[in-house]
Specification:
The structure holds two protein chains of two kinds. Chain A is of the alpha+beta class. Chain A contains 14 helices and twelve strands. In chain A, the strands form four sheets. Chain A has a five-stranded mixed β-sheet. Chain A has a three-stranded antiparallel β-sheet with strand order 4-6-7. In chain A, strands 9-10 form a two-stranded antiparallel ribbon. By secondary structure, chain B is mostly helical. In chain B, helix 5 runs antiparallel to helix 8. Chain B is globular. Chain B starts with a helix and ends with a helix. Strand 5 of chain A pairs antiparallel with strand 1 of chain B, so a sheet runs across the interface. The complex binds zinc ion. The site of zinc ion has 4 residues of chain A, from loops.
Chain lengths: ~375, ~180
């Protein structure tokens, strides 16, 4: 089947899927948009009232929290002067403006505000890495099995900006209270949250209001908010395919830069773990492992030959190994050749010759909101 | 194709690597959904030794307390056996991996039980040191788990004045451990 047709035919089911059954409790007040305490975020009325309360409590916690163990990496990543909840909330507010629920017809909320809009970096988009057929495809990602998964969170604003740019049209998004928001930047900050965000993230806790669950929800927000950044090739800080040998090989679950959403999420979670005086030893261990899982997704070095791992490549590049392989007349036994080739020290210079180091991507957003 | 249909098509394609966050429909502790079968397989690994140490597991969840180091030894062995292997993750769906999968979260709880127990009872430290050594050295375990174990291995090695063998983990695990 033609892939485009397949994707198109799946659009309906995907959007239907986004209308997953909501919680059995809590009421929705359609159309109403409420602010959190700080007034920096708008929470749409199509989010269940119980979920709205969690969001407000989470943001209130962040805004008022003083962290006694600062994280200099986090300060540097967020360009903040100190590790302080209020400054972190400001960072978040620059990237998140409106939080909408999953029970929203995205197609019906969209309109074209202006055709032929002058986007920055016209025609320049992130390079889409191609998925490996052996390890799942983008269709797996796009077509989650109905009834088996629920939405946690997505940066709708960034995706819609990309869509508008691809069609050279400024799109408008009608928020549930009827306001029209022009998607003139990935920083428009429309974040869609789903039932999955308000499920238990801590297998050891039954309480959605527990500190560990609150911190897991907030770290997810920071990750997702960072998709509002970037321009041209770095637009929206798209994830990379995890390479062969990685725990998540073949999935768009890694970053090929040093300041992407997984770096932000990992660093925020590390800081939470080192500051959580309310957490038990056990919960801190959970937060630390969560942080390490995200850190493990940062690809710092990419092999120029993707079929080779670093060790193999460096051994082939090493001088002594190359020499014995190139001179069979020396009649060195296969065993000795193997030993020579395996015992080569792999130094930074050799690795640099066979691979490319990831860099800090430009996070300056296109346009303005 | 109309503009809105085309727009939706691109929207769906575009979102792929920006980051849909999906997760299994049921939360931990509830009946598993089909996409959790891989996670159930791994968790089932605990059955043999886990049942044997069931009483200790319960204790660890409640209060992280063991009467004797021998009890903790059995518990630590069973914990080591139920940690998920790299191979278990191959069965996960794409939608399970954008955020930390349940397999890792559950491992955090299990490692948390060990950390909590040894933080409450210093007599358990030598056994915990060996647990962390085995966990760090096990190449079948995900890097994040090995790195966390390595952090504790180094910590308890220093505390107990035990010889630490840095060669049990590759450089990439050491680099990951340094992130904490
Ligand atoms: Zn993401």
């Amino acid at each position: 089947m033609n892939v485009k047709l397949l994707i198109l035919s799946a659009v309906t089911s995907l959007l239907c899927f986004a209308h997953a059954p909501a919680f059995a409790f809590g009421a929705k007040t359609a159309g109403v948009v409420v602010s959190d305490d700080s007034g920096r975020f708008k929470i749409a009325g199509n989010i269940l009232s119980t979920q709205q309360q969690f969001l407000q409590q989470d943001l209130r916690f962040l805004q008022t929290k003083k962290f006694s163990n600062p994280d200099s990496d986090l300060n540097s990543l967020m360009h903040i002067s100190s590790t302080n909840g209020d400054l972190m909330e400001s960072w978040l507010a620059d990237r998140v403006q409106i939080i909408v629920g999953e029970n929203l017809d995205v197609g019906k909320s969209l309109s074209v505000v202006q055709e032929g809009y002058g986007f920055e970096n016209p025609g320049v988009f992130p390079t889409q890495e191609q998925p490996s057929a052996a390890n799942g495809s983008i269709l797996d990602w796009l077509l989650p099995k109905k009834d088996s998964v629920v939405m946690v969170m997505q940066n709708l604003g960034a995706a819609l900006y990309m869509l508008g740019k691809e069609h050279n049209a400024l799109l408008g998004f009608k928020v549930p209270n009827g306001d029209l928001v022009a998607i003139s930047s990935p920083r428009t900050g429309i974040i869609q949250v789903g039932e999955g965000l308000f499920q238990n993230h801590d297998p050891d806790s039954k309480n959605l209001d527990s500190m560990s669950n609150r911190l897991f929800r907030l770290a997810t927000f920071f990750h997702e908010a960072h998709h509002s950044d970037g321009n041209g090739q770095s637009l929206s800080f798209e994830h990379a395919l995890c390479p062969a040998g990685h725990l998540y090989a073949g999935y768009y679950a890694c970053d090929r830069n040093l300041n992407g959403p997984y770096t932000i999420g990992a660093t925020v979670m590390r800081m939470f773990a080192s500051n959580c005086s309310e957490c038990s030893v056990k919960q801190i261990e959970e937060l630390q492992l969560d942080s390490l899982d995200s850190f493990s997704r940062i690809i710092v070095q990419t092999m120029n030959d993707p079929t080779m791992d670093a060790e193999e490549s460096a051994q082939m590049e090493s001088g002594e190994c190359q020499y014995v392989l190139a001179h069979p007349e020396l009649k060195i036994s296969a065993q000795s050749v193997a030993k020579i080739c395996m015992s080569q020290d792999i130094n930074a210079e050799q690795i640099a010759k066979i691979s490319t180091s990831s860099t800090i991507w430009d996070e300056q957003p296109e346009g303005s909101r | 194709m109309g503009k809105s249909a085309l727009a939706l098509l691109v929207l769906v394609v575009g979102i792929g690597s920006i980051g849909y966050y999906w997760r299994p429909a049921k939360s931990a502790g509830e009946e598993s959904s089909p996409s959790e079968s891989a996670e159930k397989l791994a968790i089932a690994r605990e059955s043999a030794a886990g049942k044997e140490a069931g009483v200790f597991l319960k204790k660890a969840e409640d209060q992280a307390h063991f009467s004797t180091p021998e009890e903790f030894h059995v518990f630590a062995k069973s914990t080591l056996q139920k940690l998920p292997h790299m191979a278990d993750f191959k069965k996960l769906k794409a939608e399970d991996v954008h955020e930390t999968p349940l397999l890792i979260r559950q491992a955090g709880v299990d490692l948390g039980s060990i950390a909590a127990a040894v933080s409450e009872d210093a007599r358990l430290a030598p056994e915990a040191f060996h647990f962390y050594e085995e966990c760090s050295a096990n190449g079948d375990l995900p890097g994040s788990i090995r790195a966390l174990c390595y952090v504790h291995y180094l910590h308890w090695g220093t505390e107990l004045k035990e010889t630490v063998n840095a060669a049990i983990v590759p450089e990439e695990i050491k680099a990951l451990a340094k992130k904490l």
